Amino acid sequence: MKQEAIIDQLKVIVKPYVTDEQAFSNLTEATDFINDLKINSANLIDVILDIEEFFAIEIDNTSMERMIDVQSAVAIITAKLEAQ
Amino acid sequence: MQNKRVVITGLGVVAPNGVGISDFTKAIQNGTSGIRHDAELERLQFSCQIAGKPIITDAVLNEYFTPLELRNFNSSGIMYGVIAGMQAWQDAGLSFEVQVDPDWDSGTIFGTGTSGIDKFRESIYKIDHFETRKLGSTAVAQTMNSGISAYLAGKLGLGNQVTTNSSACTTGTESILMGFDRIRSGQAKRMLVGSTSDSGPYIWGGFDAMRVCTFKHNDTPEEGSRPMSATASGFVPSSGAGALVLEDLESALARKATIYAEVLGGTINSGGQRGEGTMTAPNSVAVQKCITDALQQTGIQASAIDTINGHLTATSKDSLEIKNWTEALGLSGTDFPPINSLKSTVGHCLSAAGSIECVATVLQLHHGFIFPNRNCSDLHPEIAALIDPNKVPQQMLIKDLTIAIKASFGFGDVNACVVFKKYA
Asked: What tens digit of pLDDT does each residue of B230-259 get?
């Protein structure tokens, strides 16, 4: 899956959790889930579960800790998809 | 420091026969039953296949919860409690507007017996299937007992005490007396008090197993809950939530709030499971002491009581409860005040019973009526021997009321009795 397609799908997944709509409309690779999108830190777990479900992958605890922004999420999703 | 006077400025209710104060008022005045056949209880082969469940429309749900909050949400108790609590807040003329600082003067004591029992079941299945990592972020908030007070506090920005009390079927009445104490002693200006109870087979099953619920009305649900009747055959399990905004009188007057009634006070005690008291049966000495202490503390004479709202569940204990009232008040026959039981139309809302019934009692004082007892045209002869049958009204009575007394009794041999007065 191409990087742009993953980002587009990520936007759909994170949208319900976002509390800063403006940051969401300006979302780039550098966007941070908690600091920019103001996603509640507890909800980050739900975002990751939704990602797992959509992409049919499993994200281990170590990768989960690194998934703090769009860039790292895309990298982890790509790596998991390639490993399949 | 002089004790503060405490008044009720807001009401909210989620009951099997009405959601919202306006619908609920009409329902209790007309004796409309909220008891229905329950297909799930039938499928699970319960002895009692009827129950009282509030009907929550999507429109109401979306008024009080965001789509995000409703994702993976599976706690009926929190749902009922949030709706009733926020209704009461709104009814009191208080704002939902989000402020930067917490409202230090306002808190909540909102009780429950269990929290999110369906969510808990869902979580247990996941854990046993090695899927703990998939529980999601809200499994704790939905299943912790204080979930209901935590949800309400977050929505309203409450900065005073935020807690959940739990004392079986006295929970709701107890929450009122606990909130009353906090305001009277000057520790809070405003307390959102009340209680909630989950719905469904996992909360009601234990009672069904004890054979304390009726199994004789599976085809006649509306006739199933028969407090004080000669043909009472056990209680009907139900659920919902009741909420009241208690407020320091000065604060209520300054805001020009509607004052539904004044809380004069009351008593909470326990029979210690001594004497005739057990885990499930009341010690009458304690029940009577709870009532007499409540009168003594509030300085009210028994003869001044205009109406009683009993606990009266429709089990074999109803006659004993009436006997306790007559002995505690020293009133019987035609001297006894009119008495009613809300359970005849809503069933036994368990941990929500006390608060929903207190809301009904306060509505009676405010509007000047005594709601009818449904399903009691055949008054139990033991009760008829103690009090004039006319004191158990079958039709609504329109009457100016000044003093109403309400008691709740619960498993664990616990009691609570509260005295309300029309505000003047």
From this structure: 999 999 999 999 999 999 999 999 999 999
- Which of B67, B134, B137 is opposite residue A43, by nearest beta carbon? B137
Residue listed under structure tokens 């409540």: B294
The nearest alpha carbon in chain B to A46 belongs to B136
| Whether the Cβ atoms of residue B412 and residue B174 lie closer than 8 Å to each other | no
User: In chain B, which residues have their Cβ closer than 8 Å to the Cβ of A46?
Assistant: 71-72, 136-137
Collect the ranges in chain B with pLDDT lower than 50.
none
Residue in B67, B137, B138 nearest the CB of A16:
B67
Question: Across the A/B interface, how many CB contacts are shorter than 8 Å?
Answer: 18
Write b or e for each residue in B239-256: b if 16 or more Cβ atoms lie within 10 A of its Cβ, otherwise e. bbbbbbbbbbbebbeeee
Give the integer Cα–Cα distance in Å for B161 and B80: 21
Look at the block and give the residue holding tokens 């976002």: A18
pLDDT at B387: 98
Interface membership of A49 toward B (CB under 8 Å): yes
DSSP 8-state class, residue B315: S
Over the stretch B288-309, which tens digit does the pLDDT of each residue have? 999 999 999 999 999 999 999 9
